[in-house]
Structure formats: C-alpha cells, structure tokens
Amino acid sequence: MTESMDSCDLLCLDLPHAESIRASLPNLAAVESAAAASRALGDPTRLSIATALSNGDELCVCDMAWVVGLAQNLVSHHLRQLKIAGLVSSRRSGKLVMYRLTERGRQLAAAVLAPIRAEEVDHV
C-alpha cells in the first residue's frame, strides 16, 4: 500500500489563518468570470489573436486574418468568443470593424504571455 502525499493524515485546521484566507476569496461570480476569461485565452488561435492585438493595438478582421495566417471567417469566430469573454472590444469604422483588447484582455494576455516573452529575452 502506498502512502498518499496529497492529503493530511490528521485534521489540523489552523482556524484563524484559514478563516482569514477564506474571507479574502472573491465571490463566486467574480471567480466564474475570471475562469471564463482564462478559458477564452486557453485556445491557441485566440491567444495568437490576443498577442497580435497586444502588439498591434487595433486591427480589422482582414489584417488579423493575414497576421495569424487563418481564414477571415475563422478569425471572426474567435474574435466573437474573445468579445463574449470581455477580452476584446470592437468599433465600426466605415465598412471595417476594428478590434482591440480591453484592459482586462490586455492584462490577462500579458500575464499568460509573460513566460514566453521572458524566454525570448533570455535567448537574445
């Protein structure tokens, strides 16, 4: 029989410490919203789009499709998903629809991409 290293063998709750941590947790709605935003960037195509928007500030679907090397209808689908998650906003400019990261999208993309960008700096 193997010992489980994942749980304590006895109940040793440090109630004051545990309660202070519990009280500091965000409410369930905020956690669910954050999880949905994180899932939105969990797709490689959407993360590539967010990276392009992070580097290019504002792009139309045509430019975005060329930048990420995918069809416009596929890019439009992924931009819609990012918009639903609150990570991207859009505005119409004549016949074009321009997309940009929201502040939340910018912060989350930066956090997800930080290790990749750190590796790039280390290899220079």
TrEMBL record:
Residues 26-124 form the HTH arsR-type domain. The keyword Transcription applies. Keywords: DNA-binding, Transcription, Transcription regulation. GO terms for molecular function: DNA binding; DNA-binding transcription factor activity. SMART domains: HTH_ARSR (SM00418). NCBIfam families: HTH_metalloreg. This is Transcriptional regulator. It comes from Mycolicibacterium iranicum (Mycobacterium iranicum).
